[in-house]
Design a protein that fits this description.
Beta-lactamase; binds 6-diazenyl-5-OXO-L-norleucine; Beta-lactam/transpept-like; 306 residues; 2 domains; 12 helices; EC 3.5.1.2; acetylation; alpha+beta
């Protein structure tokens, strides 16, 4: 299969639709990004990366970071993490608070914001926010084989300044006694984690552990056990796009995780890791063109898991 041709063809077919969807505006710094950006990177077991468009330009990975935070929180706490966060789709938007009161501060899954705040809290564990951020950065730099990976301070500040919804979620969680650390410490890590700037190429390369049983097949670095990576993939498939997860599974058919920066990370078990980026979003915060690109690649390769 000529994967470079498939990636380029997909980019060319969709190029006229660049700018479709609505870039996130509730984080003011994200509204400054050129809406016509469009990149694709597909990384394989053999260490090849097939790219098209703006695949080497860094963007704000936002909620895609929740996948890394989950893997790292599981590493620190093991299955005990599941006492604090569930594993079911929520059927509600990513920043919804309604289930949290009824379900006594146990978020439905680690990808909605409330669940991710708990996951980040457990990743911080007994460390200072600075130590946790330092650890996150060094892990990602190692996995992405790139020392330049960092978070964007402007985006983190912008999100904190307008972060009333996440503060509400976090204080609500704290009131139920669900956080180990002070709310503002947890949020300061969460905002920086969401503000990680990575390119499609860096994202695809650093997440190869997902489709390949927890170990990067190129570097041999182990991120998690095979059963844990299978479970993270399962959660991505069922919860990775919030109230749009069914539609994404229907159209694309592989585990994926969206971010309001317009990136989507897709894990094709046993085959590849694919990252796409286009800032315009649908109503659930999934990149519109990104989802179309992944749907087209899944069709051309026959890689749907179904
Ligand atoms: O917490 C937030 O609202 C953002 N930092 C992340 C939300 C997000 O990316 C939703 N995903 N599509």
């Amino acid at each position: 299969m000529d994967l470079q041709r498939i990636v380029e063809e997909t980019w060319n077919e969709l190029a006229d639709e660049r700018g479709s969807g609505n870039p996130a505006r509730y984080i003011p710094a994200l509204a400054l990004v050129d809406p016509r950006k469009f990149g694709i990177a597909l990384a394989t077991r053999e260490g090849e990366v097939f790219c098209a468009g703006d695949a080497d330009e860094q963007f704000s990975i936002q909620s895609i970071s929740k996948v890394f935070a989950l893997a790292l929180a599981l590493e620190r706490h093991g299955p005990g993490l599941w006492e604090a966060v569930g594993r079911e789709p929520s059927g509600d938007p990513f920043n919804s608070i309604v289930q949290l009161e009824r379900e006594k501060g146990i978020p439905r899954n680690p990808f909605i914001n409330s669940g991710a705040i708990v996951t980040t809290d457990r990743f911080v564990d007994d460390r200072t926010p600075e130590q946790a951020v330092g650890d996150l950065m060094s892990r990602l730099r190692r996995m992405g084989r790139d020392e330049s990976i960092n978070f964007d301070e402007d985006v983190a500040r912008s999100e904190s300044e307008t972060g009333s919804r996440n503060r509400s979620l976090a204080y609500f969680l704290a009131d139920f006694g669900r956080l180990m650390n002070p709310v503002e410490d947890v949020l300061s890590v969460y905002f920086r984690q969401c503000a990680l700037a990575m390119s499609c190429r860096q994202l695809a390369e650093s997440s190869l552990f997902l489709p390949f049983d927890g170990t990067d097949p190129v570097t041999g670095q182990e991120m998690c056990s095979p059963s844990r990576s299978r479970r993270i993939n399962a959660l991505m498939l069922l919860c990775g796009h919030y109230d749009n997860s069914g539609q994404f599974a229907f159209e694309v058919g592989v585990p994926g995780k969206s971010g309001v920066g317009g990136g989507i990370l897709a894990s094709v078990p046993g085959r590849a890791s694919i990252a796409v980026w286009s800032p315009g979003l649908n109503r659930a915060g999934t990149s519109m063109l990104g989802a179309k690109a992944l749907s087209s690649i899944a069709l051309k390769t026959g890689w749907s898991v179904f």
